[in-house]
Records
---
Amino acid sequence: MNRRRFLGQFLAGTAAFALAPRLLRAEVAVADDSRRFAQALAREPWLAGWNSVAAESLGPSVATIEGRWPKDLVGTLYRNGPALFDRAGLRYRHWFDGDGMLHAWRFAGGRVEHRARMVATSKYTREQSAGRFLLPAAGTTIPDAVPIRNNDDLNTANTAVIRFGGRLFALWEGGSAIELDPADLRTLGPVTWREDLVAAPFSAHPLLDRDGSLWNFGSLDLLGGSGLLLWHIGADGKTLRTALLPNERRGYLHAFAMTDRHLVFVLTPYRIADRDAAAFFERLQFAPDQPCRIAVVPKDALDAPRWFEAEFGAVYHFADAHERAGEILVQAVRHTDPDDMRSPMAAAMRGERGGGARTELALLRIDPAKGTARWEARGVHGLEFPVFDHRHEAAKPARVFAPLRIEPAASPYFNAVAAIDGGRRRVHRYGADVLAEEHVFVPKPGRRRVGQGWLLGTLLDARRGRSGLAVLDAERIEDGPLAQAWLPHTFPLGFHGWFAAG
Ligand SMILES: [Fe+2]
């Protein structure tokens, strides 16, 4: 089946591309914004987390180690995140708009080395030459934006990173994975998994199955259609299966969850509130008066989803999912302020204090026999970027590791890390001036028991003007880092990382 027919029914009648430039409304980004942010940064050093990086590449630099680096922790922590927010005095208003920068922290021989490089997407390359923003962005109206041919023209490759089949990919939500050279982080270009699906969305949170294959989705809502494109990629990089999951109502999703038998997609209902606005996140308004729709898709029958409804819940990220006593149990971070979720750290992007994750850990219980689904709060608030040990057993929900915010805090961002078991949490606080990002779980070599591992978490120490990372024993996080590695400068915060051993 060709691409036109494959996607046709889902895109029928939608001539307009949801992210394409439309009528500009009054609140376009203005050329004063970068100057105002720079003035605020001089007063509030924590805003370095949202400041544009000054160079196309950083390093390689050797970090200064405090404490004792575990000698068998050898490999590379890759990280990705938006890093360029300003051009020609114009500043993005939405954190998700920044062009992606890929970081590699290499650990070997007791040394920690860091390097980073902007992902040379077609957008980044064109805008570097032009010296100004040219392309529409996901959350900021760009004046005089040029027309686009397809969604990869907008791809910032700024959200997540995976090593898969020996290859390295920078991922975004609405377009192709972008392949990079794992050694020097040079951009190789967009990946076409299936010849007739050029530039089709391949989301930022694919999940690895036990057989080494990779599952993912792409939302066709972002193309002005509806439904999800499902991907199953073999360990050799060949596409095993694709399918279309039709969805009758608009639903936003950024990630999904997976058990051994099922894929679970939780769609947060939204409306397109402002039809005159140009950018997707300016037009989107979550709809707390409507239920979440949840698709449970058997891995062996992608065309036979079951649909459930639960009370409204706005989610970016999921932790573990498993099946027990006939139920499907999924842990997720639920946002309790839908407008903050629409534009996280929007105040920081303007150079102001405010916002911060209004979130809670929640358990979604799906009962296929009864046809019901419901949310249960887990009593832990102010967290995001949940991770877990993938070796966890299905006997109970996995221990979740996540950065969280605890007063006193110099910034509205996270400054601590927690290990959460049910309602019980253990915490390490980095201090009021340190901003803490996602902490990746790394199993200790040769240790089989669930939970035996390290946490690798990147940090920004605002008071001392340095970026770095910490390694903690995942079973004793309250003891604080075993070691920290610091660079003598800062760079912007990112979103997600991936550890590759060896
Ligand atoms: Fe994410």
---
Amino acid sequence: MTSSGTYLFSIDLEDVRDFMKDGQQYAERVPAMTRRYLAFLRQRDSRCTFFVVGDVARKYPDLIRSIINDGHEIACHSNKHITLENLDEHTFHADLEENIQHLQNAGAKNIKGFRAPVLSLTNKTQWAYKVLSKLGFIYSSSVLPAHNPLYGWPEFGQRPKTIDGVLELPMTLSSSFYPLPFAGGTYFRALPLWYTLNAFKRQHRKGDAILGYFHPYDIDTEQERFMHPGIHNNRFFNALMYYNRHTVFSKLESILKRGWKIIPYSDFIQQHYH
Ligand SMILES: [Zn+2]
């Protein structure tokens, strides 16, 4: 085992059923999947950041308390998971205040971080930093610095940057010909392990941390089949939503075995930016 770097593995805690018309007809999966993540992290003595949607905290305060009791960081992922392009400074401010309130009601303290729904912080929505700063946020991890069918801000670049007093930690991209956010979600599931391990190695040589995001559904091998929201009814994208979910924990295991360490975002910022 070689000593490796920091993997800012994180979980966006949201319930896809809340974003669908008649979504409640499908089985409840968020608490069970969260517990699966918690058990995995506990066994590996790892703590990470959970970016939590306000509605989820309101519905499952006990679940949030379990996350806190295990020593993980709680951060915001908006109250209703509305993308930033559908908000403005005023409505975003109100949405975040509600998000913070629900997290605090469930026991979260010292909330410092934010992740935009679907990484919708782009060139067009960078007014969001002003709002985050006003509400006392220290960091955001909301930018996909690449071209993407849904969102993306390729001009942002791949290095962290402070905007309006808020440190943005963009998603990590592979340094291949076609840069991919290899360390999270669909890409992490779909890419073969050798590709992922190589990408981790290359990033380590650059001395950079690796950022990636996961959701309750990313590990849900028993979830019913339905068209996921936010992918424009595209059947190929939907097939990808279900693809290789059973591989996530074994891939994570391989990464941790190579010495990568999962830590909360706020710890990382404390270590490197203070
Ligand atoms: Zn989300």
